[in-house]
């Protein structure tokens, strides 16, 4: 959203005014809550403020007809800003964009009560208004987004994942059925692997990225850098692979695990520390 003003009242003795806007959302109890302040434009009665963004929830709490009050002030260094005037609008009015209805008279109630010939203290005009939707995870699922979930298990000794093969025992088809299948593969693998260190995280990312390439489609893609601090930084060089699908690694430090002699398990989960990062690749990514 962007606004400008014209012919605001002069408030400074040695200058004009230093105007700024304050937006208020109306509440159910009749009070108002500040939801945005613009920057101050120095020494002018015809300011043009920079475009800014306000979340719809903050502006009107999802009620498009809820009153939005806007106060116009003259900035003072000591914080005792001078009130120029006010006007009201709503999200629905603003969403119509620039038109003759989105030119607002700035009114000062005190001046209006004292001066019979008082008209207004200037006008504020909406220059532009654009709604940008932020889609939720549920929106993507409803739209048919397909999710591929990959689990990489770090065998602790101080943790290893020597090669990015399936712990299910079948490197060609490492798929497991559900979380129970993942746990079963983990318990079986504990009997055959040698716990080792340090942690090798890069092969996991490369394996998943290659899978995304094989199942992807051509088109324009975005790219970002994935980085993880590990105790094997010399080995953690993730190959950059052209990847048509977003990959989001979620790395967690989790529980202690104890297998009893009969093969059952007792697990105690400690506080989990997770770091997540969006992973997108484009072009030929390098080591």
UniProtKB/TrEMBL annotation:
GO terms for biological process: cellular response to calcium ion. Residues 254-278 have a biased composition (Low complexity). SUPFAM superfamilies: C2 domain (Calcium/lipid-binding domain, CaLB). It holds the Pfam family Copine. It comes from the Eukaryota. Residues 1-104 form the C2 domain. GO terms for molecular function: calcium-dependent phospholipid binding; metal ion binding. Keywords: Calcium, Metal-binding, Repeat. Signal peptide: none annotated. One of its GO terms (cellular component) is plasma membrane. Residues 228-237 have a biased composition (Basic and acidic residues). Residues 214-287 are annotated as: Disordered. Belongs to the copine family. This is Copine-9-like. It comes from Notothenia coriiceps (black rockcod).
């Amino acid at each position: 959203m962007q606004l400008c003003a014209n012919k605001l009242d002069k408030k400074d003795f040695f200058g004009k005014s230093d105007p700024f806007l304050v937006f208020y959302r109306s509440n159910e109890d009749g009070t108002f809550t500040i939801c945005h302040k613009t920057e101050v434009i120095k020494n002018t009665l015809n300011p043009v403020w920079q475009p800014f963004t306000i979340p719809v929830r903050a502006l009107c709490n999802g009620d498009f007809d809820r009153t939005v009050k806007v106060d116009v002030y003259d900035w003072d260094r000591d914080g005792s800003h001078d009130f120029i005037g006010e006007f009201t609008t709503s999200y629905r009015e603003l969403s119509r964009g620039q038109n003759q209805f989105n030119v607002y008279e700035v009114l000062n109630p005190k001046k209006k009560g004292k001066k019979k010939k008082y008209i207004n203290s200037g006008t504020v005009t909406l220059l532009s208004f654009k709604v940008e939707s932020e889609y939720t995870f549920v929106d993507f699922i409803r739209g048919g987004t397909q999710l591929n979930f990959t689990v990489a298990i770090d065998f602790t000794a101080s943790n290893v994942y020597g090669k990015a093969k399936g712990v299910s025992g079948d490197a060609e088809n490492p798929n497991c059925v559900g979380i129970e299948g993942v746990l079963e593969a983990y318990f079986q693998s504990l009997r055959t692997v040698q716990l080792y260190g340090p942690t090798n995280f890069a092969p996991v990312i490369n394996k998943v990225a290659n899978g995304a390439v094989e199942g992807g489609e051509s088109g324009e893609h975005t790219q970002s850098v994935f980085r993880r601090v590990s105790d094997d930084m010399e080995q953690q060089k993730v190959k950059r692979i052209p990847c048509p699908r977003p990959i989001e690694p979620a790395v967690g430090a989790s529980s202690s695990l104890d297998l009893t002699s009969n093969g059952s398990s007792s697990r105690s989960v400690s506080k989990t520390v997770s770091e997540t990062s969006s992973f997108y690749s484009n072009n030929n990514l390098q080591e």
